[in-house]
Amino acid sequence: MLGCHFGRCFQVTVAGGSYQEGLLATLQGVPPGMRLTEQEIYGDLLLRKPGADELSSPRKEPDLPVIYSGVNASDTIEGAGNWNHTNGTPLSILIPNLDRHFVHVKQYQDTNRTPRPGHASYASFVKYGPDDDAIGAGIFSGRYTCTIVAAGYVAKQVLKKFGIEVFAYVKEAAGVRCPEIDHAEVLNATNRYKKMRHDLDPFYQEVYVKGRITPEMRFLEKMRIFAQIEQEIEDIRGKAPQMTSAEIADKYGTHHVVNCPDIQAAEAMLDACNRITRTGDSSGGIVEVVVTGVPAGLGEPVFCKLDGELGRMLGIGAVKGVEIGAGFAVKDMTGFESNDQMHSEDGRVVFDSNNAGGITGGIATGQSIVARLAVKPTPTIDRPQHTIDKYTLENKDLAAITRRDPTIVARIWPVAENYTAMVILDLLIAHFGYQALFKK
Description:
Structural class: alpha+beta
Order of helices and strands: EEEHEEHHHEEHHHHHHEHEHEEEEEEEH
Number of domains: 1
Oligomer: single chain
Radius of gyration: 22 Å
Distance between the termini: 42 Å
Helix content: 25-40%
Number of strands: 16
């Protein structure tokens, strides 16, 4: 299968499927000397995993990662202190599937003859034939995005060393839009939301905080624990710390479900999504991604423009549009209104606006980079739809009986955040290389 590879300087290859043994992300270009833990990576994975709240699929995958290669198994010399540091070799992260049961496989088997409208199930069958990995939609399931989150988490840690922050949030859901908020506050609110999710996630607490899985364990030891966890998913989920939405808002200053910096808007989003879900239908929305601290000059012309590379986030399942800065709104502006005028202030360039989203000519201006993703409604819905039998081409009707997300927007923001980090890091490595040659 082609198309499962990203990047030139920072490269990511993904593999696996929704109901295969698991998924895999292999990263090349990770610098040596980074200390990575599975707990840290899981801290981002839990933000997009299913079964965490009322707006996500009831599938109960823990999304527990395993670092399989790319870190030192011990100190390279006695007392070096570089055990568990990245060593420059390809970093592989495994994410086993632990919540795959025959009852769910049977549901897919019973409905796979009739492709779901709006889903890849028909196109993938045409491309790959009867052996297409159709159980759970395979690599066309939103489940594959856990590999992007895992890889992007690593990219974010590298970027932070250079003062670059990448963060995302739900800008709009089911027609309810978040008001304009200062980016510094959005970053703070997103970090508070992540802290809340870490504290209240039962697997984060039971598996990592309590030391059931530790970095010292070898791979086979971890697999033994994973086999136990597979049988204890319900028990562990039952240990989730219980807090009311009001208690969460008071302690963390965030909404209990939706990562939106305005709590009132987040609650309105939740209500609107739930109203639609009760009819058997689904809803969409907008995710906004912001990058601060990007050096001016990042990016390449023509085929590798920074905004063009960000446009590759159309590859995220359910994303149907990517706009940079003012985006489609520029069609209603004049040139004077659209242009980001600039002036000099204390020896630095200051822009009066940011309609370009921090990018002109495909190259960063030094302003915050702003991108928005249009997320379509979940195609798997509980309403009768017209479809066909993909083997006989007979006309059929279909209503979903498989596990599904009422909306995807609430789970896509961490994918967009980490995908953006991959793009920025890939171009940053090239930028630094070019600058080093130029300065010589």
